[in-house]
Amino acid sequence: MPSDPPKLSGGNPSGTGDAAKFGVVTVSDRASAGIYDDLSGPAILQFFLEAIKTEWHAIYRVIPDERPLIEDTLKQLCDKEGCCFVVTTGGTGPAPRDVTPEATEAVCERMMPGYGEQMRAISLKHVPTAVLSRQTAGLRGKSLILNLPGKPKAIRETIDEVFVSIPACIQLLEGPYIETNDEVVKAFRPAGLIRKTESAT
């Protein structure tokens, strides 16, 4: 029985934050060929549903482990679709067809190595093979691109923690002001980036 399609939007349009557009890209030969259902992309979308209070919309793609296609997809989501945050899942290990980090580095103008370091540190709490991950992150224009692991459990272990700093990063890129549900993720911002709400003035 086919699973329900993932929700591609959420949040509160009347909140104090700004509407945001996200890109979610599952990189998998087998999922893109329909050999099995993609569970990883929907896990990221489910995180957005639970964690993001601001209105958001997502563009979701499932593509094979082909570097030119990964690069073109990332460029399209950043340049044409205007996604402030693009998340990939899959293709970050040492196998010959794991080329997501190379595609990410090729399209980014500046890298953000701290995210890769943090994600590996998080995953090492759970599995020793986390050292094999080559996850990275970088900036293309006003977009942040982040590589996540391929398994839903590892995705949630990682993004639930690493997302704490992502709203501030997006804001510094002149992107939308993203509010989070504190019970899931409490976003951290330096004082100068905190938006005063009408009730606080």
Please tally the helical runs, counting DSSP H or I stretches of 4 or more residues: 7
First-last Cα distance:
52 Å
The CATH architecture can be given as: 3-Layer(aba) Sandwich
- Can you summarize the main beta sheet? 7 strands, mixed
The secondary structure category is alpha/beta
CATH superfamily: MoaB/Mog-like domain
Secondary-structure topology with pairs:
Elements: E1 9-10, E2 20-27, H1 29-32, H2 40-51, E3 56-63, H3 67-80, E4 85-89, H4 100-107, E5 110-111, H5 113-124, E6 137-140, E7 143-148, H6 152-162, H7 166-172
Parallel strand pairs: 2-3, 2-4, 4-7
Antiparallel strand pairs: 1-3, 5-6, 6-7
Helix pairs in contact: 2-6, 3-4, 5-6
Describe this structure in words.
The chain has 201 residues and is α/β, with parallel strands linked by helices. 41% of the residues are buried. The chain starts with 8 loop residues before the first strand and ends in a 29-residue tail after the last helix. A 7-stranded mixed beta sheet has the order 1-3-2-4-7-6-5, sandwiched between helices. Helix 2 (40-51) runs parallel beside helix 6 (152-162) and helix 3 (67-80) packs across helix 4. It is 34% helix and 17% strand. It has 7 helices and 7 strands; from the N terminus they run ββααβαβαβαββαα. It is globular, with a radius of gyration of 16 Å. The protein has one domain: Molybdenum Cofactor Biosythetic Enzyme, Chain A (3-Layer(aba) Sandwich), CATH 3.40.980.
